[in-house]
Structure formats: C-alpha cells, structure tokens
C-alpha cells in the first residue's frame, strides 16, 4: 500500500485562560485525540458544527496554530519537529485557503503581485517567466490576464476566492487545507467554486483537507469523511458509507439538518436538542449523550473509543454503532427542497460539461 501523504495521530489542543483575583486559571480542550490520514490526491472532508474545532485542526496541520501534543506526519516527516528553514519548505508543499477571501488578500496589493510573490520567494520560475506563470494560474481558475492589474476590492466574492485558489496553487502544493472556502459565497457561486476545486484536484493531483459544515458539498467533493463533535472525531470512513448509512447519532443529526426533507430526519432533529458541551470541565461519558435520542445509562459512564466495525474501514465513537444500521438511517421522503435541487443541479451541470465553472460575475 502507498504511504499516506498526511497522517495525523493523537492531536490535542488546549486553550488556557489566565486566572485573576479570586479566579482560578481555566483550561478548554478544543481538540482531543484527533487522528486521520489523507492519501495523495485524496479529498478528506472534515465536517461538524461551528465551534467543533475544525478550523483549529486545519491551522494546526500547517503550524499556524501550534498543537499541544500529537503527531502530524507529512510524507513521513514530523511537521511539529521542523525548524524554520524546513518549515518554509513544508509550507511550499502544503497551503491553506481561508474562509473569507477578502480578509486573506492584502487590499493594497494587485492580485497579480499577490500571486507572483510566493513564486519569487521559493524561486519556482526564472524572473522573466513569473508574469507568464501568473497569467497561467489566473486562467486555470477561470479568470484572465486582465485581472492581474486589479486590486481585491474590484472583484466579487467568488472571484476573490478564485484569486486565493490561484495564489495557493502558485507554489505547486501537494496538499491544500480548505477552511470553509465557499460558506461566505452565494449558492450558485458555491457550486462554481466547488467544481473548480474538484477539477483542479483531478487535474493536478493535489489533496485537500476540506473543512465544512455543508453536508451536500462534502458529499459531492470528498472521498473520505471525518465527523467532528466538540473537538473529537466521532465517525470516519469512506464518504459514501458514512453519509449514506451513518452509524453515529451526531452524523445522523447533521444529515437531518441538511436541506433534504424527510420524516426520520425531522424526528431525530427534534429529539437532538440542546447545545454542545462546554470545553471547560467536561462531564464524563459520551460528549453527545445529553443531546442524543439513543443514549442509555452506559453512554454517560465513560467516553466511547473510536472503534472500527463491519469491514474495518469505518470507525464510530458510539457503543450503539452496530445497532444504528442502514435500516435506521434517515430515509428520503418526498422531493428534495428547491434549494437542495438547485445546488445539486449546478454541481452536476458544471461537472458534466467537463470544465471549471466560469467566473461568477464580471469585475
């Protein structure tokens, strides 16, 4: 078997708040014992509610945020042990696309210069050919040479995200961490950018860690999925299996909250009320037990491990995972909602045409 491009083992992150007068210091464990692998050219979807720790994990993978413990192995190399020079080389091979395309671009810098900067920094092209490479990258993401001389404010949200993608691709990375890259965009623009990312992955062989709370997008793009709840992976495995027949009640709740209406989903969503547990001083037992419609007394006694079941390709942190089979998974009832139909139609249409989607609007 080919060694994975990225292997994460036992990743942990604790944020500490200083104490004060008559107040003891506090610790919030926002990521606990997270582990997963990403193969070369693979898309790994990391899904969960806001505040579940997804962005923290994405930043730790590139050492934009330092992990407290655990291993991050990139092509067999321990990322956490890299010195400054080696870390610079690693960041050429691994890039990040942020959620807000406007905040991630310097408003004073023309987009052509923003894309050229990392090419010059890493010496990837002779000085005389950098401009040609910038034009090539802009065209690769559906823009044109004329856009190189414009500033970020002259672009729409979808176009700015295309610029951010071009800048990430400028250093020819093997891995890109995509942190909610379409959540700030309109529905039709989301479809264009998602298909662009899918086409680039297929064409260039780049792998993604795709962070999102949108199950429809993850279902379309990812080959493997990890479901994160309150800082811990609760289910992981092939996307088709996890999203088609979820074995953890939290995964089922996320799917029930998607735009496709179905009776089983509405019942489970109604029963799974409440909020995620506080990261300060967690209670023993399963983190989801207080919201879970299937919880029993044993669920509150000890936190269940992320165990394999069935064919060994899937893992779930639930003592009742074997009971929650396909026959109890949310089943479709009636037609999908108009919003869901629109999104899926746009995704299918752009993919069927075999091209990157066109820019969302003229600048």
UniProtKB/TrEMBL annotation:
**Stretches the record annotates as Disordered:** 259-281
Give UniProt keywords alphabetically.
Answer: ATP-binding, Nucleotide-binding, Transport
Report the transmembrane regions from the record: none
Task: Note the PROSITE patterns from the entry.
Answer: ABC_TRANSPORTER_1, ABC_TRANSPORTER_2
Which SMART domains is this protein grouped with? AAA
Task: Name the membrane topology term.
Answer: Peripheral membrane protein
Q: Which GO terms describe its cellular component?
A: plasma membrane
Classify the main location: membrane
Q: Where in the cell is it found?
A: Cell inner membrane
Q: What family does this chain come from, according to its entry? A: Belongs to the ABC transporter superfamily.
Q: Give the PANTHER family listed for this entry.
A: D,D-DIPEPTIDE TRANSPORT ATP-BINDING PROTEIN DDPF-RELATED, TRANSPORT ATP-BINDING PROTEIN
* Record's protein name: ABC transporter ATP-binding protein
Phylogenetic classification of the source organism: Bacteria, Pseudomonadati, Pseudomonadota, Alphaproteobacteria, Hyphomicrobiales
